[in-house]
Amino acid sequence: KSMESDGEEEAAAATPGTAGAAPAAGRLKGCPELSVEGDMREMAKTAAWSVSSCKPGNGVASLRDDSLDTYWQSDGAQPHLVNIQFQKKVQLQLVVLYVDFKLDESYTPSKISIRAGDGFHNLKEIKTVDLLKPVGWVHISLSGTDPRETFIHTFMLQIAVLANHLNGRDTHVRQIKIYGPRPNPVPHQPFHFTSRECIMYSTIR
Amino acid sequence: MNLLREAEETLCPVNEPNVEVPSGATGHYLLGLIYRYTGRVAAAAEQFTQALTLDPLLWAAYEELCILGVAEDANECFTEATALRLQQEQTSTSNLEKSNFVNENRVLSPNVSASLVDISPKHIKQLPANNTAEVPGYPHLRATALHVQNTVPSNVGQFDSPSPTVTQTSGIVPPPLFRNLHAYQNTTSGDAPAKPKVNAVNQPPRRKYLDEARLKKVTGRLFNPSGDSVPRRSARLSRDTPINSNSNISQFGGNGSDHSSGKLRVNSSTPSKLCSTAIRSVQVRKGKPRATENFDEGSRYEAVDEMWTDNIAATSSSLSIAEGRYFEQDKAERTLSQDSKMATGIKELLGLLRTLGEGYRLSCLFKCQEALEIYRKLPEPQFNTGWVLCQVGKAYFELVDYLEADHFFEFAHRLSPCTLEGMDIYSTVLYHLNEEMRLSYLAQELISVDRLSPQAWCAVGNCFALRKDHETALKNFQRAVQLDSRVAYAHTLCGHEYSALEDYENSVKFYRCALQVDERHYNAWYGLGVVYLRQEKFEFAEHHFRRAFQINPRSSVLMCYLGMALHALKRDEDALEMMEKAIFSDKKNPLPKYQKALILVGLQKYQEALDELERLREIAPHESSMYALMGKIYKQLNILDKAVFCFGVALDLKPPAADLAIIKSAMEKVHLPDELMEDDDL
User: Fold this and answer.
1) What is the pTM of this model?
2) How far apart, in Å, are the Cα atoms of A140 and each of A38, A95, A100, A123, B507?
3) Which residue ranges have biased composition labelled Low complexity (chain A) (predicted)?
């Protein structure tokens, strides 16, 4: 399944009443399933996660606990920020968030901005998305159109919730995952092996 | 129960350091195992050597020595001198009362189970549970066996008679034959320790794992003429004895109805437990009517009665087989003396042990080519047995010849589908060959054979690992570890998965666990090396790869990785030398060629690098990374059209997204001067 599989990022306006059709361009609706291509893997297990504010008991840990029942709840002024700082420069291509309008209503984010950079001092926005009553996993690709722009190389990623549905102040996000390419099984090799003959000999198990 | 300390206490009381270790050879063997599990390798080796001296047929002790890497040449251990000694021991045993046979019925079962239990390391746990009195029983085991044999009436000399005659002789088991069987069984069973000897008749009945009811069940099954047991025996026998067992099987099987109580007596009186082979022939707990190659450690008590059954069956069938063999040789000759038969038997036995022992020793030292040569010397029926084929497969695996390894493992698995030993390596071979379907099929089969065996779960884990589902793979490997924490490979596989998940702390922990179990487990040394390489701790990496290389000096992949560590340490000359070695030792391995080219590029020796890549192209013509590197070199040499061409080919060969980005970017920038190339492009 493609990265944009939560499907309704259609450019053309759809006819009203069509199930699942997005009324406008770029409005993500969320997918019940997390679908990520096999050649990607979750990148942020060893990263440092922090949030701009949180309610006690609904802190940053809830974003990474693999439970869709727990959520992060912000507690302050917008924008609400989730900061992810990696130990070294990494290649990233996909951000996936789990949000649920049915459960969270006015706490559900409606506008998200993704920024990247070396640190807090030089973050630049790389992507903005609008969400419309999303329920489920929202896949946000960080790639450009050109294959050369599949990945961003960065030390830090910041996910900013700029606005919520129904003008809610605080936000709920239940889970966030960050994806990038798999490392080369042969360390320090610039290219991956593609052929069976090479892969067979490339490691000892 | 893992009460190693108590076990040690029992065998070797601290307050009496000069007391002779009870149970003689087996006692030493057990003590050796205890020392090994608690990390006292030198002491373990000493104990095993002692055990072997006391009982040269204690295969398990020799096996352990091999695993520790300190075994002597098999020719030394299984010599003519020992042959004579064994012979003498046999003839000097006194006769037992015939009435003992009956006792043996009862006694045997618990003893069998006891001895069987004894065999597997896990069963050491049970030792402490027993009173000390039981342990001393073991030294008498072998003697007892001999006693039993010798008490048999004079018909003994007729061991060369075919099965029908056996019944006539009311179950006389010729000592030499019996010995042979015992020995054969022991040796071919390689994996399981040879637990010789039935408990001496004089021993009080031990824990009654088997009660009388089971005994009856056993005998019932034993004489099941339906051939249910026959396939077991036949498979085992063909493995055990170097004769064509087919005719014999039918002989035996056909005698179902002839098997009188005399036969039963024979069976029960034969201390067959010796046979790990007999154990081998233990049917899978689930009652599959197929010979099991291995003593399924996971099926302890449950299987014990079955094993016992099979032991009995096995022994008797083995006997008949062996008998049949001589029968074939000389039907009329019924008056050969016991002694000369014994001598022949012992000689042959030792000859077999020598071959298998030498082969095993060499393969533990990773002198795989030599080991293979030795195994090939075995006669075909011996060669075509599960254990030997697995060893051969393993040897090819260590030589990084996965296709051959696959061939042999597959054959082994087909011959004895219930063998679990070695199947974890087989699953790795299939992993390397990217045979997803066959691997998942194997995993399912193994799980259905025994859900509690670590090897089966290793295979399942390898399935998931092949699909890159590292988390599930990890769970399965952890399960394997739980089932038996003394299987080093399970720990190593956990380590690999943690490494793939980039959880280096845990991966190091598991690799270290593996090394605690088996210091010569080079895969774990390698795994640690890779972790340190990734963490850029290059000196640690080099150290660990070198340790791995010292243990297995034939693996071209190890040589290559050692070279990579040297290159990272900027010792390029040494690195290149290592790569040359790797290339030389296995011409089919593309990795060292590629790595050598990388090093040469780093040294700006572009033309040599290209030459190397051309040689690589011969064995891996459709390798994207090779063309990508060539493109980069041509760019450096300013041969721009070739550079573009190579990048184009590289792209066509469908590299992963990360490489795609790099190569495309490089292609676009071919015509730009170098200064504008970003560092992380190539």
Assistant:
1) 0.68
2) 17, 5, 16, 18, 32
3) 12-26
